[in-house]
Amino acid sequence: MSLIIICGATATGKSDLAVALAQQIKAEVINADSMQLYKGMDIGTAKLSLVERSGVAHHLIDVLDIKEEANVSWYQRLAREKIDELIGAGKKVVVVGGTGLYIKSILDDLNFPDTDPVIRQQITDEAEKVGNDVMHQKLAKLDPAAALAIPKENIRRIIRALEVIELTGKPFTANLPRQESSKYPSAKQFG
What we know:
Helices cover 43% and strands 11% of the residues. It is built from seven helices and five strands.
């Protein structure tokens, strides 16, 4: 068992468990919390201090300045590179965090279509004019499954789904992971 995933909500003891487990099995920890990627985002993220890490190496913590933007595609590449590097060196890895999409991006074969700032801005402008309900109805016509999965209150995800549809010509749901495509099929997951 080279890869263990510990996931759940903030302040539920995941990090302490990850450190204790990593000490026990001589593993290193990979962060899977979107806010802990940022330097200075210590309050409200339950980020462990160096002392609390008890000498266990932690990766993907404090790697971005607050003005830099993270995205799942970027995170997936960095996390997988580090996991593969550690496992290749014969080390065990504990991934810990509460950002479910980041964890899915490690395990599943997600497809991340590019973004187009012009198309995104056009869709954003339209959303500002017509509102969430109309944009959600538009999504429902183009991709009913996506509309069921994305609440009408989440305009950011609606805009992204419509952007992907525009860019790829395929439903947004066509880009979602398939269960059978895990990159690390022997990973053990605890939540």
